[in-house]
Design a protein that fits this description.
Shape of chain A: globular
CATH architecture of the largest domain in chain A: Orthogonal Bundle
Order of helices and strands of chain B: HHHH
Number of strands of chain B: 0
Helix content of chain B: 55-70%
CATH class of the largest domain in chain A: Mainly Alpha
Number of helices of chain A: 10
Shape of chain B: elongated
Oligomer: heterodimer
Distance between the termini of chain B: 39 Å
Structural class of chain A: mainly alpha
Helix content of chain A: 55-70%
Number of domains of chain A: 2
Radius of gyration of chain A: 19 Å
Strand content of chain A: under 5%
């Protein structure tokens, strides 16, 4: 399809990107934290990909290339706004320090039906947004966009071992932030009832 | 060799990705069979990651698709297209 678009059948670009509309928006949304801004980032990323389609040589999957462009767009925007938002990508380059999980004695599975509740979705969204950028990037790429560790390393231009270290910390940070809150938000009895 | 809880926590991410060496995985597995706390940490982490990846967490705003394709259409029909700056493709 890419060859056909480059040969002049540009309308096909609409079809090419359709499966990635949500991924690109989700990637943007996990960075810029505002729906309108995320939409701008997503649109800019799709446009940039269109303008640069001739440079895509198929060394990676199209989806990975697109995600990589989106990440760069989101980072560019964050850098531009960092003085306003008091958040900089460079604030979190330190990878040291140990992250410990929330200690629990038991855990009853929370079914995905719980996501029908707005406050549960908001809890999860906030937990992702509150991760420091280097951890947010890796968890979004690996656990939300389901890139492999190798693909995530390629997109972020870091080593595979750095991806693994950051991913571990990001996952433990999410567990620590969310497990106690989800336990409170969805008491055991309710979780049990949700299956019936 | 017996693992302590704090060592098991260090392996949780790779355990979930099934990327631990077989002998380490076996040690972690053995610990999990007898440790309620580490089992709960592992189960909650796995559960939270599944919930986090759900499409409902970040839903598309109403009209997003239409606005996107309208903007793309304007670009597609414009004569002046071409790269603004080179984009490096990752392997």
């Amino acid at each position: 399809m890419i060859a056909a678009i480059l040969a002049g059948n540009r309308e096909l670009y609409h079809n090419l990107i359709e499966p990635y509309e949500l991924s690109v928006y989700r990637m943007a949304m996990s960075f810029v934290k505002d729906e309108t801004e995320a939409e701008d980032v997503a649109q800019d990323a799709f446009l940039k990909a269109f303008r640069n389609l001739a440079n895509f040589r198929g060394q990676s999957k199209f989806s990975t290339w697109l995600i990589s462009i989106t990440l760069n767009e989101a980072r560019r925007r964050l850098r531009r706004q960092s003085t306003v938002r008091m958040e900089s990508l460079d604030d979190f380059t330190e990878e040291g320090g140990k992250v410990s999980p929330a200690l629990l004695r038991d855990w009853s599975e929370i079914p995905s039906e719980a996501l029908e509740r707005r406050e549960v979705r908001a809890l999860l969204q906030r937990a992702i947004e509150e991760l420091p950028p280097i951890y947010r990037e890796v968890v979004v790429l690996r656990d939300i966009e389901e890139l492999s560790v190798e693909e995530a390393a390629g997109v972020l231009t870091i080593s595979i071992s750095s991806v693994k270290v950051r991913l571990h910390r990001a996952r433990i940070m999410l567990q620590k932030a969310l497990a106690p809150k989800l336990k409170l938000a969805i008491p055991k009895k309710r979780r049990w009832l949700a299956w019936y | 060799m017996v693992l302590e809880c704090k060592h098991v926590w260090d392996y949780i991410s790779e355990f979930l990705d099934d990327s631990l060496p077989p002998e380490t995985r076996e040690l972690v597995q053995k610990h999990l069979e007898t440790c309620d706390i580490c089992s709960a940490i592992l189960d909650s982490t796995r559960n939270i990651l599944i919930l986090t990846a759900d499409d409902r967490i970040f839903e598309l705003p109403a009209g997003y698709s239409q606005r996107l394709h309208a903007r793309l259409s304007r670009e597609i029909h414009s004569e002046n297209i071409g790269p603004e700056e080179p984009i490096q493709e990752q392997d």
